[in-house]
Design brief:
- By secondary structure, this protein is an alpha/beta fold.
- It is built from 8 helices and 5 strands.
- The longest helix has 13 residues.
């Protein structure tokens, strides 16, 4: 395999995750992606320092839905602005390759697409932004695809 994707790393201990990263080094794996909500990365600078020891080929896929409190409350049930900022500061300190992952919901955070791209450009560690239209799963009470879903073509237009 060329890629290893670790989901739920917040439930993996630091030594376990470091051991996983060490274990992939001798194998023909060129890219390891750590999918995270950023809580641990924001709160534990020593964890990020340990990740940085194996940052070659490591990509942090960081949940980053909004720059605004109301949108985060709607999408995640919590104001995560400080957590995201602290996570980005820790990742920046070690220049760990990061992709911001934005779940886009019409009327909630779709007007922020350009602002999020501009915000991403302020961080040297951020290598890209992934936009995902919201799906009918998780916290989406009363989800109506016609009302709530943003099309990829809408996202492309908003980036221009």
């Amino acid at each position: 395999a060329e890629r290893v994707h670790t989901r739920g790393a917040s439930h993996t201990s630091i030594p376990d995750l470091v051991n996983i990263l060490h274990a992939v080094r001798p194998r023909p794996i060129r890219h390891v992606m750590l999918t995270t909500n950023g809580l641990r990365i924001a709160r534990e600078p020593e964890f990020v320092a340990r990740l940085a020891e194996n940052k070659r080929g490591l990509e942090v896929y960081l949940q980053f839905d909004s720059l605004e409190r109301e949108a985060l409350m709607n999408l995640r049930g919590a104001d995560l602005r400080r957590v995201r900022r602290d996570a980005l500061e820790n990742l920046e300190r070690h220049n760990i390759s990061t992709t911001l992952v934005v779940t886009v919901k019409r009327g909630v955070n779709d007007r922020e697409i350009g602002a999020i791209v501009k915000h991403a450009l302020e961080w040297q560690c951020v290598r890209g932004v992934t936009f995902q239209p919201v799906q009918d799963a998780g916290r989406n009470e009363n989800f109506d695809a016609k009302r709530d879903r943003v099309l990829l073509s809408d996202i492309r237009r908003a980036i221009r």
